[in-house]
Amino acid sequence: MIYVYPAESRHSFDLGWLRSSHSFSFGNYFDEENTAFGPMRILNDDTISPKRGFGAHPHSDMEILSIVLDGDLRHEDNLGNVMVTKFGAVQRMSAGTGVVHTEHNPSDTEDVTLLQLWFDPEQRGLEPSYETTSFDPESLSGGLLPIASSDSVENSVAKLYQDMTVYLSKLKAGTNVTFKQQPGRKVFLFVIEGRLKVADEKDATILLSRRDSARIVNETALKLVGDHEADETFFMLIDLP
Fold it and tell me: Any idea where the Quercetin 2,3-dioxygenase C-terminal cupin domain is (predicted)?
């Protein structure tokens, strides 16, 4: 089954310095029917103004992944990590027993746009940790590039302490990629830019536009096609238990 969540169904707000859309319950927004998808708890689509950001705040027992789409994001935490990340790099923080951090746009003139994702860890009480890993943006074209995974074996892939993998992909109009899934697992799709056609095993097709998402269960093969009305489609696919 494929359940579509249009972009406009998200909870969106504009604080001036922060423009954000939440795909799941978060902060002051709560919907008891939209609190999780498997271990996935949060997908926030944030744009932060220059020289603004989130002050020091704590987290615990959560896998937090930040994917910068445009601009620069500065991270600092009480573990001693300080890093500025841009497109082509990923920040992963395992909050574990507790960590305090800040997120800030260091630019004087440019916004930063990012996706922040939260997942339950497989095990509570882990030692807190942080890493920044990088990927070649050219490798996104025509395939599914893993950028974070529980099966991380290369430095370019962030290590997640949950049985899951996050992929990014860019498809030219009319090109496609197939994702095969193990029975009993879930898929979360999110279109960052463009339009994506998604066909299930019976060739039933849905169309996802910019910032639309889909939550998919009981499907073992998906055909993903870049729609002809978009020169290129940029999307995220997450394989979840």
Answer: 147-240
Compute the Cα dihedral for 135, 52, 233, 64 and give only its sign: positive
Entry pTM: 0.95
CATH number at residue 62: 2.60.120.10
Q: pLDDT tens digits for the chain (241 residues)?
A: 999 999 999 999 999 999 999 999 998 899 999 999 999 999 999 999 999 999 999 999 999 999 999 999 999 999 999 999 999 999 999 999 999 999 999 999 999 999 999 999 999 999 999 999 999 999 999 999 999 999 865 566 899 999 999 999 999 999 999 999 999 999 999 999 999 999 998 888 999 999 999 999 999 999 999 999 889 999 999 999 9
Total domains in the fold of the chain: 1
For 119, 151, 203, 239, the CA distances from 166, given in Å and listed in that order, are 11, 11, 24, 7
Indicate whether 4 belongs to any domain.
Answer: no
Residue from 100, 54, 104 nearest 84 by CA:
104
Contact criterion met (CB below 8 Å) for 224 and 216: no
Q: How many CB atoms lie within 10 A of CB 70?
A: 12
